[in-house]
Amino acid sequence: MNSLVKTLAATALIAVSTFAMAAEGPGAKSAKATVNLSTADLALDHYVAVTTEGESAGVEQLFAEDFNQKIQASNTLSHSRSEVVKSLKKQKGEKLNCTVSTDIIEESADYMIAKVILKFEDFTKTDLVTLVREGNDWKVSGSVNAYR
Fold first, then answer.
1. Cα separation, 51 vs 44, whole angstroms
2. Which of 27, 67, 124, 142 lies most in the core, judged by the most C-beta atoms within 10 Å?
3. What is the pLDDT of residue 78?
4. What pLDDT score was predicted for residue 43?
5. CA 114, 119, 87 angle in degrees (round to 5)?
6. For the chain, what percentages of helix, strand and coil (3-state, to nearest 5) are there?
7. Distance in angstroms (rounded) separating the CA atoms of residues 98 and 29
C-alpha cells in the first residue's frame, strides 16, 4: 500500500510538471525580452551593460535601424547594426575585465552624445555614443571607437 501511494504521488507530480511546461508553450523562453529604454540614461546604461557585461536582453531593441559603428585604427573599420548585434549576442554572459566611466557630452530632448571609457590593463577604449529618441524609446544610433 505504501509503495502504491508513492507511485501515485510521483505520477501526479510528473503530470503537474508536464502540464505546467505545456502551459508555457514551446516559445515561452525564447521570447525576446523587453527592456525599459524610456530615457536616454536608461538606454546608455543598457548599452554599457550589453557591451561590457555580456547582457543579452533587449539587444535588438537597443540599436536604431540605421545604427553604424566606426572603429578608428590604422585603417578605419565600419560595422552595420546586424554585424554588431550578432557579435554582441555571441558575447552573452562575457564580462570585460575593465573599469567603465561615462560622461554626457551633449544632451537635449531628442538626442544625447556620451563618452564611454573602458580602461583595460594595457589600453583604453573610448566610445563616443549617439543616442536618439524614436517615439517613446531611446536607441543607440551611432558609435565611434578609438583605442590608446
1. 11
2. 67
3. 93
4. 95
5. 70
6. 35, 35, 30
7. 31
What are the residues facing 115 on neighbouring strands? 103, 128
Contact 51, 43 (CB under 8 A): no
Positions of the chain with pLDDT under 70: 1-32
Q: Please tell me the predicted confidence (pLDDT) of residue 131.
A: 97
Q: In a 3-state reduction of DSSP, which class is residue 140?
A: strand
Give the contacts of 54 (CB within 8 A, at least 6 positions apart). Answer: 91, 92, 93, 94, 95
Q: Which parts of 25-139 fold into alpha helices (H)?
A: 40-52, 59-62, 81-90
Close Cβ partners of 129 (under 8 Å, ≥ 6 residues apart): 44, 47, 113, 114, 115, 116, 140, 142, 143
Would you call 111 exposed, middle or buried from its count of C-beta atoms within 10 A (0-12, 13-18, 19+)?
A: middle
Rounded to whole angstroms, what are the CA distances from 33 to 41, 42, 56?
A: 19, 15, 9
